[in-house]
């Protein structure tokens, strides 16, 4: 499992590519990695906002691409627009944008 700063560095290094190829406007990390509670088998929770709507296939390709960038670590990709009111507030307080 990669540490938070390493994950943020990887995102930072590929941010232009993510914007161009997947229309990523904002991207951040939340969950156990941010809280320092991640285990070796934990996934990386990623919150993303898009510059314009993308389809399901492109969304899934982005999730897979991030997993590759993180060395095979599972990614749980969440669109900011899909956040539910209660859990969304918690995520938005916790997220660390890159």
From TrEMBL:
Q: Which family does it belong to?
A: Belongs to the MntA antitoxin family.
Cofactor field: Mg(2+)
* Name of the molecule in the record: DNA polymerase beta domain protein region
Q: Does the keyword Nucleotide-binding apply?
A: yes
The keyword Lipid metabolism appears for this protein: no
- UniProt cross-references to InterPro entries, sorted A to Z: NT_sf, Polymerase_NTP_transf_dom, Type-VII_TA_antitoxin
- What organism is this sequence from? Geobacter sp. (strain M21)
Sorted keywords for this record are: ATP-binding, Magnesium, Metal-binding, Nucleotide-binding, Nucleotidyltransferase, Toxin-antitoxin system, Transferase
Q: Which GO terms describe its molecular function?
A: ATP binding; metal ion binding; nucleotidyltransferase activity
Per the database record, which ranges form the Polymerase nucleotidyl transferase domain?
Answer: 12-98
